[in-house]
Specification:
alpha/beta, FAD/NAD(P)-binding domain, 23% strand, globular, binds flavin-adenine dinucleotide
Length: 390
């Protein structure tokens, strides 16, 4: 009997998992379907570039999956019934599965702050980045842009906007001290770059309200903003939390070290949607740097369980955080395996090239989910999916 594997979400994690499964399993034994709301693979790590008017290469999923044996279904997932193993799509059709890989990623997190969805722009999605691009292009010289959030996305967005739109007045509002998780030299480089780009940094300025022409901080300070860019973190889609899957308070699916749901053994979760741990036992952060190795681990675990092979142990650790600071500068903050800053944090033009290589590499890895020749393995028994082989 053919084993039906359904993968939800064709971002970095889902596309990698789908391609890897298709290349490692025999086509006579499995039927692999990848469901995605959009027909293209979106390089989410470049959304700040799209928002500032840069051209991004089109990456139709059909081309990416050509010849792989994966069936693409362009549709929006509306619910998942993990007890009856059925996914419902927005065209009112149902999709049954034997194994599910959940990789629906994330969207911006408003943290319950009033006005975010009504008045703020975003870079977390392609439609959002395109809307922001239109708004930025319409601003007159001196137009005020406030980026909310001092994490990686906020930093990348603020510096990209300031570099691309020199005539605008760009500010960033951050919760605590700017770049407080970076090493001292990393912080120095970040500060220097923001000074050079003329970005005003408002520290200890948690934004508690967004209005049409301003944001208000917890201290009651009003920062005028013709455009507000909300970059204060990501939230997962509520679909998993609405099912009987075990999820965290934030709605991420809790998985074991093989990326298998701890509550439903026929469900795997990868990427931003999953709550997983690094090899050294700390929670993984939402990032493409986490999502790709998570999907290798999930795909190889499914292959092992279907074919009776050994369970893999993909190293799930961090090496660096690569932060673009416009197109001519970047900061590469080296980190410990559990993602704490080391002292080494080179920055500058060469590092901008390195960051670009990392982004190109991430898309390459998605297109080459098994970058070496492998023999497709035959499934032994579907029962192997539930029992762990040694
Ligand atoms: C501006 C920006 C810069 C970033 N820079 C970096 C960086 O430098 N390094 C790094 O490691 N990370 C970075 N990230 C984070 C990184 O992009 C995400 O962590 C990563 O994309 C997560 O991958 P994923 O596959 O889990 O989800 P996604 O890439 O979000 O993919 C999810 C997919 O699911 C689809 N989908 C969602 N809901 C549905 C639905 N209901 N039905 C059907 N399909 C659906 C989406 O269309 C999408 O294709 C950045 C993010 C942003 C926004």
């Amino acid at each position: 009997m053919v084993h039906r594997i359904v993968i939800l979400g064709a971002g970095y994690a889902g596309t990698t998992a789908a391609g890897r499964l298709a290349r490692r399993l025999h086509g006579d034994d499995v039927e692999i379907t990848l469901v995605n709301a959009e027909p293209d693979f979106v390089e989410r790590v470049r959304m700040h570039q799209l928002a500032t008017g840069q051209h991004l290469r089109d990456r139709p999923l059909r081309d990416l999956l050509a010849g792989s044996g994966v069936t693409l279904r362009v549709a929006r997932v509306t619910s998942v019934d993990v007890d009856h193993k059925v996914v419902t799509l927005d065209d009112a059709s149902d999709l049954g599965y034997d194994t599910l890989v959940y990789a629906l990623g994330s969207a911006r997190d408003d943290h319950g702050v009033p006005g975010v969805f009504e008045h703020a722009q975003e870079v977390a999605s392609r439609p959002g980045a395109l809307r922001l691009r239109t708004r930025l292009r319409a601003l007159a010289p001196g137009g005020r842009v406030v980026v909310v959030g001092g994490g990686l996305t906020g930093i990348e967005a603020a510096s990209e906007i300031a570099e691309s739109f020199e005539h605008l007045d760009v500010a960033i509002a951050v919760h605590g001290t700017f770049g407080d998780w970076l090493s001292p030299s990393g912080r120095r480089h970040l500060r220097g770059t923001f000074d050079r780009l003329g970005v005003t940094v408002h520290e200890h300025s948690a934004v508690t309200r967004v209005d049409a022409g301003s944001v208000t901080t917890g201290d009651g300070i009003i920062l005028p903003a013709d455009v507000t860019v909300w970059a204060a973190g990501f939230a997962v889609h509520p679909i998993a939390a609405a099912s009987t899957l075990e999820v965290t308070d934030r709605g991420q699916i809790v998985v074991d070290e093989t990326m298998r749901s701890v509550s439903h053994p026929d469900v795997y979760a990868v990427g931003d949607a999953a709550f997983a741990h690094t090899t050294v036992g700390t929670p993984m952060r939402m990032s493409c740097a986490s999502g790709v190795p998570m999907s290798w681990q999930a795909a190889d675990s499914i292959v092992a369980r279907l074919t009776g092979g050994r369970l893999p142990r993909t190293p799930l650790t961090y090496v660096h955080q690569c932060i673009s600071l416009g197109r001519r500068d970047a900061l590469i903050q080296f980190v410990t395996p559990d993602d704490r800053a080391r002292s080494f944090a080179p920055g500058g033009r060469l590092m901008a090239r390195y960051k670009e290589l990392v982004c190109v590499g991430a898309a390459w890895v998605v297109a080459h989910p098994v970058p070496y020749p492998v023999r497709r393995r035959r499934a032994t028994s579907a029962a192997a999916l539930v029992a762990d082989p040694v």
